Amino acid sequence: MGIALLIVGGLVCATAIVVLLISIWFVGIYNNLVKLRERIKNAFAQIDVQLKRRWDLIPNLVETAKGYMKHERETLEAVIQARNQAASAGQRASGDPGDPQAIQALMGAEAMLSGSMGRLFALMENYPDLKANENMLNVQEELTTTENKVAFARQAYNDSVQSYMTARDIFPNNFVVGFFSGKFKPAESWVIEDESEKQTPQVSF
Predict the structure, then answer these.
(1) What are phi and psi of 30, to 5 degrees?
(2) 2-198 — its CATH code?
């Protein structure tokens, strides 16, 4: 009887140790996924800061251009409309950077904004006085600097997404992800498909 109790006690103890180890393992994976998910949010916050800076600069650029490009009203209005759509998409994305649809919408809006800005800069080549305007020179310089910062922030964001998605999909982490299916959703990288978008719009002064 005593031996049986010892055996049972040993099995209970061993089971408790196994359960404890599994719990520690489970919690460790969970916490790591949470940490990686938070890195995505922090990385996107840096993109958000630079995009907002760019959105704030664009109206100043357009207002300066209006004084010289009186016959280009449609182009100028298109820039402002694209800027407002990008800012609206950015606001939604900043609320949940882990939402792939929100990031895709922002990427699309930013592509449209880049296209409209490119058309504006192309037209500005026909207005030498505008190109020589001191305010326009300053805004263009700030835009170029901001675009470079956006590119660096975007790369950091993509690195964070890649780390998270790799950790999310490998075994046995995917078991934990499956257990918390609504907690660790897929994240979307910021991919630029149009080569022209990768280039900072430039105006020759």
Answers:
(1) -60, -50
(2) 1.20.1440.20
pTM over 0.85: no
**CA-CA distance, 77 to 133, in Å (whole number)?**
21
Average pLDDT, the chain: 86
Cα gap 58→146, rounded to integer Å = 12
Report the chain's terminal Cα–Cα distance, integer Å: 96
Element (H, E) at 86: helix 73-95
Per-residue pLDDT for 204 more than 50? no
Query: For residue 57, is pLDDT > 90?
Result: yes
In whole angstroms, give the CA distance from residue 107 to residue 158.
13
* Cα(123)–Cα(189) distance, integer angstroms: 33
pLDDT at 201: 46
Cα 15 vs. chain centroid, distance in angstroms? 45
The CA distance from 115 to 110, in Å, is: 9
Report whether 165 contacts 186 (CB < 8 A).
yes
